[in-house]
Design goal:
Elements (H helix, E strand, L loop, with lengths): L2 H14 L8 E5 L4 E5 L2 E4 L6 E5 L1 H8 L5 H6 L4 E4 L1 H11 L1
Parallel strand pairs: 1-4
Antiparallel strand pairs: 1-2, 2-3, 4-5
């Protein structure tokens, strides 16, 4: 996996502060790769998930740092969501 994915996993685990997510979500960061968020937190991986969120590295970085609202990113086309929209909304609350 890339250094970008490794850094994103570490940052997301710190932001979640040990909290898990009731379901599975896959984050696809362009050509850098992907990672999974589930009840154990964030980890590198490309498993099947309830919902898949895809965006470029800059968009995810802005979301994780609180500079960009995930809903705004989705509505503007910067973030695509495939799968269970309810899980995506739950994830947005976990990340807030």
């Amino acid at each position: 996996m890339s250094d970008t994915i490794t850094a994103a996993v570490a940052a997301l685990n710190e932001k979640m502060d040990g909290a898990g997510f009731d379901g599975t979500a896959k984050f696809v960061m362009g050509d850098e790769g992907s990672f999974i968020v589930d009840e154990s937190g964030a980890r590198e991986g490309d498993d099947d998930a309830d919902v898949t969120l895809s965006a470029d590295v800059d968009t995810f970085q802005q979301i994780f740092e609180g500079e960009l609202n995930p809903t705004t990113a989705f509505m503007s086309g910067k973030l695509t969501i495939d799968g269970d929209m309810g899980k995506a909304m739950q994830l947005a609350q976990v990340l807030a």
